[in-house]
Amino acid sequence: QTNKARRRQKRQNRKRKHNNSDAARLFRFILRELSKHLPHILIEHRITLAMLVTGLLRGRSGRLTKIAEKVSYRHKKPSLVSRFQRFVKSSWVNVEAYYVPLANEILQAVEPGPIVLMIDSTKMGGRCICLMVSIYYKKRALPLAWLCFKGKKGHSTQAVQIELLKQVKTLLPDDTLVVLVGDGEFDGADLLNWLKEETDWQFVCRTNPTTLVHYQDRWMSLTEIVAELELAPGETGFLSQISFVQSNPVEKLNIFIAWHQQDQKHIFFVTNCATEAEAKHWYDKRFSIETCFADFKSRGLYLHLTRIRTPDRLARLILAASFAYYLVVLLGIE
Fold first, then answer.
1. Which residue of 44, 87, 202, 221 lies most exposed, with the fewest beta carbons within 10 A?
2. In this predicted structure, what is the pLDDT of residue 184?
3. Half-sphere exposure of 128 toward its Cβ, with a 13 Å CA cutoff?
4. Cα–Cα distance between 99 and 293 in angstroms, integer?
5. Using an 8 Å Cβ cutoff, are 282 and 119 in contact?
């Protein structure tokens, strides 16, 4: 029994030593990459961020205690957890300023365009929702900017959506085709008016079949229009230069009517694209953001398990996760 226990202990020590060496090598690689991309931030913040990224990639958990377990650290693990807590609480860690260099590199990688932006929200952390804009790159969605706010479920407000898109707009180069795609959460009149008046972007957003639009000199729901046009199952349609939303009309928009094969029903999109084929082409790219959210949550980094309940702190943890995601995609491409 004594010999067996010794052999078992030796195996455990070898495994622990091997794991620590793996963690140390990964940490050194990540720190080199962060130093290359973020030479302007404090070295202490850079080291802490590198350890957070290392723990996220190795631990597959959004809980700081689990992240700390997967990092090679010469001091006691509780002190590392405290270090992580100070990082996510620190008002000195400006998420936008820290992430801008990476966002610029992502934008340079997709030049000369077009730039396809995907906007969506997801529940993350303790009673928080993350609204994120991602950019389409090699069939993946890479995070470009995000905002977190309190909420158990439900949609973001149009004011929050516009605030985030204003932030994204400052990052984008001039004279490049930009296309924004979103689901039914992003068909609000205020948002559509902002897109028309403040940008020259194209957009395609899903909308509700009960939405009232001005068609043939009267206000009709989109479901009624399908009946009026006598569209059979499998058929599609495209309405040009209509007024969208009776309560707060947005002029000169188009409606793309598509057929959803799985649900066996017509679905509707509001757009400023000139043709049905163009609207369909751009919207088909939206689903990569669902893959991104799955990688951030139940299929990758498990951020949905974090117990952080403060939006600002959650945004800083998502900063570390976004760096981790960027490095994984970068290595995959290389």
1. 44
2. 92
3. 25
4. 18
5. no
